[in-house]
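README: folding subset

This subset contains proteins for which both the sequence and a predicted structure token string are available. Records are stored as plain text. Below is the entry for Glycosyltransferase (376 residues), shown exactly as it appears on disk.
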Amino acid sequence: MTLFESTARVPGLPLLSGRTVAMVHEWFGATGGSETVFLAIADLLPHAERLVLWADEGVDTGRLRLSQSWLSRTPLTRSKALALPAMPLVWRTLTSETYDVVISSSHAFAHTVKLGDPAETRHLSYIHSPARYVWSPDFDGRGSHPALRVPRRMLQKADIRLSRHVHAYAANSREVQGRIKRFWNRDAEVVNPPVDVDYFAAAPDPHRHQSRDYLLGVGRWIPYKKFDLIIEIADAAGLPLVIAGSGPEEERLRQLAAAAQVPVHFEVRPPRERLRQLYWGARALLFPAHEDFGIIPVEAQACGTPVLGLRRGGLLETVIDGETGLLVDSREPAPYAAALRRLGELSPQRIQQHARNFSSDHFADRMTRWIEWAIA
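--- output ---
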């Protein structure tokens, strides 16, 4: 039997109530999937210390009980790229305290934190991804410049050397599980992130009965999210488009939208309730990006909205092709536009049912099992 084969529900927490526990996370933004995961794990361990490199402006560190590192008092917090070389040192000087159990939430180098002798301290790490700009510059252009080739190799060696003490890894998806094996030669259990499917499913009646007459793109407006392709798909399909989010590509995307033959409406930083309304009103969520997991496609499916996306990465886990969405092997708009004609084959009820596999309760159960197994 594998770790997660049993369907019996794990009793509630607190877990490890008789041991000292530290929760560790990288920089803490006001919103983000990795922060959501960190807080969901912390909820399972209410007595744990919560340690972060720094918290962005607007984060209520008091309410969230976040203790920041000495890096938070330096100008390096204004540039993650400049702070990157200092992070391995920060993780080794984070605190003089030692703990029985340390759980890191890592998308850069948090998994290298060492807060006790490995013979006495269990170090567990939940991986959102091995640092993309270090290990996967084809995904993240920040590490792709030829001048960074040598520094990147040095960081790769340090990443492996400084994380040998980690006793157990969890990955947010099979995609990331594969990277952990490929880059670090370590095994990992898959524990998908929590998605608040109950909130998105429980829309008021007026939202549920919209005409679903537009396509929707949601996310951060950065190059690898492929919002330029999303505009091209809507244009090829002849359907209106709503783009929700924010990011540095806004001006370029508005220029592309102005040249499109279909209406393109921008929703900048929509509140959560408005985002739910947008999901319920969309004919489909367009998601042609290669993501590690992707919480947004699950939120859309919780609203009965199918996903039209790239047959890569996390969508292979979150979307059932031909049942809850349609996956395309292309970076060109025409195949997506053609696939849109098949959306009538999909059942909104089946789409919503599938989204429940990624609920917060499901995450809590799987995370609890993994922690109990890892400290045994």
